Amino acid sequence: MGSNGEEKKDGNDEYQDMSIAEIIDYCTNARYEEIERELEEMKSYIGGGSGVQSEVQREVNRISWKAEALKIGCLLTKHCSILIPKISFHRMDPPEDINNLSDSGRDNNDQGNRMASSSSSTYNVQTSGSSHESEIKHFWSRTEVGMDFERERNLFVSVSVGTEAFKIKILDLAITAMNELANMAIENEPLWHPCIAGRILNCAEYIKKFGQVDSHFPVLPNAETYTNPLQTEASRETRFLAVQPVHIVELLMNNDQYSHVLSNMVSKAKVRGVLSTQAQGDYNGALQVMAVKFHASSPLVPNRKCYLARYSRRLNNNAWGVVDVSLQSLFPNPLTRYRRRPSGCLIERFRDGLCKVTWVEHCEVDNSSVPEVCRYFVTSGQAYGAKQWLSTLVRQHERLTHIRVRRDPKLQLSTGEANLLILADQMMRNFWRNMSFSRKNRWMLVSLSDAENIHKAIIRFVKEKEGRCPGPALVMAATIRIPASARKIFNFLQDENSRSKWDILSHGHVVQQTRSISNGCVPGNHVSILEVKSPEDPDRTVKTLLQESFSTSACSYVTFAPVEASSINMILNGGDSDNVPVMPSGFSILPDGLTGDEVSLVTIIFQILDSAASPMCFPAHSVYSMYKVITETAKAITAGVVDPYNMG
To answer: Which residues neighbour 573 within 8 Å (Cβ) at sequence distance 6 or greater?
Structure first.
C-alpha cells in the first residue's frame, strides 16, 4: 500500500461492500480452516502431554474464537438494514371441503395426494425479505452459521473438560455454587419474599450477601447484553416426600433417570464429561459437565439451554445437596440468552421416613421473544420456576408409590394394566417432545386471523417413526387464555361425559370409559380407555382412545391418542406395548401468572397423519382441517367452563 494512512484501515472495511450471504461465506470458510488447526492442537495437548506451551496456545485459541464471534455479531448488527431471508408461510385460500374433517388418527392419503398435486393447494415454506432489525435478533438460530457455531461449542466443551486446568476451575466453581445453594435454601426474609410462585429473590440482598458466584473467573462481554439485557428469575419451593434422600440424588445424577422422570421439562440432557466419580451408589462429590435444554408447557415459550456443572455432595449425616451452575465464565458465548446461576435442591432427612426437599431456581434469561399471552406466566417464574420442578418430582414419586401400593394382592395390577401404563407413559413423553423446539423439531407460525381468543398458532412436521409415529404427520399448537380456574378446566376436559361438548370429532356420539387405572392420589389422575360409540348403533365402537390425565400444584395435563381396539385388547391380555403406535393430542393447563386462579392458559395440541406432508410442504387440506379443530375446540372449551348452560 502507499502511505501509512492508507494502511490503517478499519478491520471491518473489507466487508462493507459485501452482502450478508457473502459475509457468512467468507467467515465460515476461514473458520473451517481454523477449526482444523484447533482440533490438531487440542489433540496434541491431550494425547501428547505437552506442557505450558499447549496450554497457552489453547487459551489463545479460546480468546480468538470468542473475539471472532463478537466480530461477526457486530458485522451482522452493522448490516442490519440488509434483507435477510426468513421462513414463512404463503397463505392460500381455504379449500371448499374444509368441513370434511379427518380423525386425529386417520390418514389423509386421498385428500392429501390431491392437494399435493397442485402447488396452489399447499402451504409451502418460502423465503421472503424483511429489512427490520428484528430479523437479526434470532438470526443465529435460523442459519447454518448458528448451527456450526453450536457444533463448535459442543466439540470445544467436550474436549476441554478433560484437561486438568479446566477440571480444577470447574470443581472450584461447583464447590462455591454448592455453598451458595445451601445458604439460599435455608435463608428467609429479607433474602426471600413470599409470592404466588412460592418465594422470590430480593436481588439487592442477594448481591449484598453472595456477590457473583463466579467473580474470580474472567467474564468476557456479552455482545448483546447492551441491547437485550438478561432478566433475573429466582424462586424457591419446599415439599416433603416419603423417600430416602440418596434416591433423589441418584435420580438427578443419573442422566437416564433425570431425562425420563423430568421429561415434561427436560428436552435434552447429555453428559459432556465426568470429572469426579465415586464408587457405585456413592454420589458424595460426584461432578459432571452437561449440555441441557429445558422446555415449558407451551411450545410458544422459547426453550432454554446451557452448559452446566452438576455437583452432588453429602453436607452432613442428614442432608444432601445437588447443584447446577452455568459454565458461561469458562466457555463464553456472545449469543448467550440463558445463564443458570446456582440452582438445585437441598434434601434433608426428616422424621417418620420423610425427607424435606427445598428447590431453588436462579437464572438470568432473555425473555424478549416470549409472546404476550405467555409473558407474565414466564417472567413471574412459574414456567421454569422451583414450583414447576418440584411439583413434577412430587408427582412422579406419588405415581410410582401409588402403583407400588397396588402390589397388594387385592389391588395388584395385572400384567396387561402395567403394560397399558407403560404405553400411556410413552404417549405423555411424545406429547412433551412435541412441545419442544430444536433444529430437528422446528415450529412454524400459522396465521389464524379470524380465530377468537387465539393469539398465535404454530405447526410442524413429524417424520415417520419419530416417537412411534406410524407415518408422516403434522402437529398444530395454540395457547389461549380462558377466564376459569385450572382445576375447573381440567375436570371438564378429563370427564368422558363432557367430551362430546368440546371434541368436534366426537360430537353427537356417546363416549364411554371402559377401563380406568388410578396412578396418583389426586382425583382425576388416571389412565383410561374411552370408546366412542355410534349414535345409530350404541353397540358399535367408532374409535378407541387411550387417555392420561393428571394434575399437580403447578400444572395439569389431559392427553389422548387413538389406538386400534385390537391393540388395546392385545395389551390388556398381557401383550407387549412396545410396537403400538401412539400419536398424542391434548392439553396443558396452567395459571396465567397474573390473576391467581381466575384465568388459565390452555395449550391445545392436535396431530394428524398425512402421507403427503413433508418438512417443506404442508397440504392445505390438512392445515385448514387442523385450523378448524383448534378454533372450534377453543370456543367449545371456553363455552363449557364459562357459560355451560348456554352450550348447544
So the answer is: 416
Closest by alpha carbon to 45, among 66, 33, 62, 64? 62
Q: Rounded to 5, what percent of the chain is helix, strand, coil?
A: 40, 25, 35
Measured CA angle at 407 (ends 406, 408), to 5 deg: 85
For residue 333, the number of C-alpha atoms closer than 13 Å in the C-beta half-sphere is 22
> SS3 for 235?
strand
The answer to whether the beta carbons of residues 483 and 598 sit under 8 Å apart is yes
Which parts of the chain sit beneath pLDDT 50?
1-13, 15, 20-21, 45-46, 48-56, 59-60, 63-64, 66-120, 124-148, 214-228, 648
- What phi-psi label fits residue 586: left (phi over 0), alpha (psi between -120 and 50 degrees) or beta? left
Q: List, in sequence order, the alpha helices (H) in 507-619.
A: 565-572
* Distance from C-alpha of 495 to C-alpha of 265, rounded to nearest angstrom: 26
Cβ atoms within 10 Å of 497's Cβ, excluding its own: 11
pTM: 0.75
Reported as a single tens digit per residue, the pLDDT across 510-566 is 999 999 998 877 888 999 999 999 888 888 999 999 999 999 988 999 999 999 999
The three grid cell numbers given for residue 240, joined into one nine-digit string: 416433603
